[in-house]
Structure formats: C-alpha cells, structure tokens
C-alpha cells in the first residue's frame, strides 16, 4: 500500500548550520499535506549538522544537494535542482520559507514547473488548501492551487514548531549548474557589523524601537535594555527611515516576522504594517508617552511615560533582579 504523498520542504540554515525556525515551522505545517521531505542545498558539508534536527521535526527523508559552486551562485541553481526533484518525485506540494531568497526561489520554481504559487501561507488543510494572510495580516484568505505542483511560500512566525521524531534517510541529489546560472555570480560579500546579539528572527526576546525614540541617548538606553534581556533589536519602518536602526532590524509587513516570548515595543505607535510582523509574540510590553497610542490596545502590559526615564529604570530593575 502506498504511503502518503511527499511534500518537499526547502530547508534554510543558520550561519551555524542549524535549520531556521521558519524551516521547522514549515516541516510542522507540511505534515497536514503529506510526508515531509527536507531539501538541503549548499556547499559541501553545509548539511552535516542539519539532518538530525530536520528529522526531529518530521523529515523522514533529507535530500542533500551540495556543490562548491553554490557558494557563489544566486537562486538559479537551486531552482534547477528543485525543478528536477518535482519532475522526478511528483510531490503533493513544495513549501519554501518566505525569506528574501526563499520567495525568489519559490516564484521561479512555480514559473519553471508551470505551477500555481501562494505567498504568505500560514497553514494548510488536509484537502490541500492553504490559509494566507493578506493586506498586512489584517485579512485571512483560504486558497487552493489548481495548476501543477502547488508551491507555497511559508510566512515565518506563524506557528510553534512541534517535534515529530523519525529516523531519516539521507539521499544525495546531483547539483548541475546551467550555463545561465553560471552567468550570474556573487562576486563579493560584505559582512555586517557583529552585534553580539541573537538573530532577530530566532530571538526569544526582542526590544524594538519606533518613531518615539528620537535621540542617540534614548537609542543607547534601549540597547542597554536589550543587552540586559539578552534580546535582539527590532525597529519600525519609521525608525529605519530615520536612521535609528539599519534595515536588517526592520520588523513588519516589509521586514521580518518575529515570534519571541517577549516583545518590548519602545516608542512604537502600533501601526498595522508593523504589527503584522509581531502577531506571533507571546507577551508584548509597550512603552509610550502617548496614553492614546494604538499599541496599548495590542499590548499585554503598557507603561505610559517618557522613554528617557522609563527604559533606564527598567534596565536597572532587571539588572538588580539578576544580581
């Protein structure tokens, strides 16, 4: 008797070679559609430490495609490999974490295979349909792909990954770069400054700043609070545009989606565009000088007060409690 259909889940790895949270979410969600099969594409050895963790979250098979040339390649070679896997294995669906690269890979794969493509997917049903968020997360849509092999871009921070341990079968798959793929190469990488803080999308605590953080002293106070909590720094679009934080800190509709245990919103009004990236936070604490700020209707706890006064006081209390 044939088992459940395979669902290809493209695995993204952190800098230390571990599956990202979004990958583990996608594996968890994909079980509704069939048997998750993780696909790891990278340079030789990149997948060495990932197979066990992928299997812990339900990947009964781990397909590994490795090539030294992938280090300097853009999305094209990954799409080539995935398109061959779709043709050879006829999966029920393909699920790709919706990172910047993941969205490009998913869109190209859908075009290459003549398939329908759904973005911002946050859940699946046994009938093959998907739940999407639209309009900045304010609208929930139920949709189904009716053409080709459904390709889904999984929106990060949409659920809590649930382990389902299995014994994995690891298979090597060939990686062949087409002439077109070889013509587009990465020629240089520039590393960002080392912040010594956890990655924004993986952090269990996030301290975020908005338009209400206006001075260098206030920003420094927020950074001290983040360090006291072992937190990542996030920001609204307004704070990024003002130069308070780099674009890598952006949280919201056009930035990262986060799912921390604690989210501290400092000087943030609570606009829907930002809040669409925060919905998965377990507990939200807001600090704002405006008692009528919309953020207080969204937060679990709120402090009305001046950032320059409240934030250092919070840091002092946390530091004293841990002394």
UniProtKB/TrEMBL annotation:
Cofactor(s) the protein requires to work: FAD
Keywords: FAD, Flavoprotein
Keyword DNA-binding: no
Residues in Electron transfer flavoprotein alpha/beta-subunit N-terminal domain copies: 7-186
Gene3D superfamilies: HUPs, TPP-binding domain
Similarity remark: Belongs to the ETF alpha-subunit/FixB family.
Subunit text: Heterodimer of an alpha and a beta subunit.
Protein name: Electron transfer flavoprotein subunit alpha/FixB family protein
Species per Swiss-Prot/TrEMBL record: Modestobacter muralis
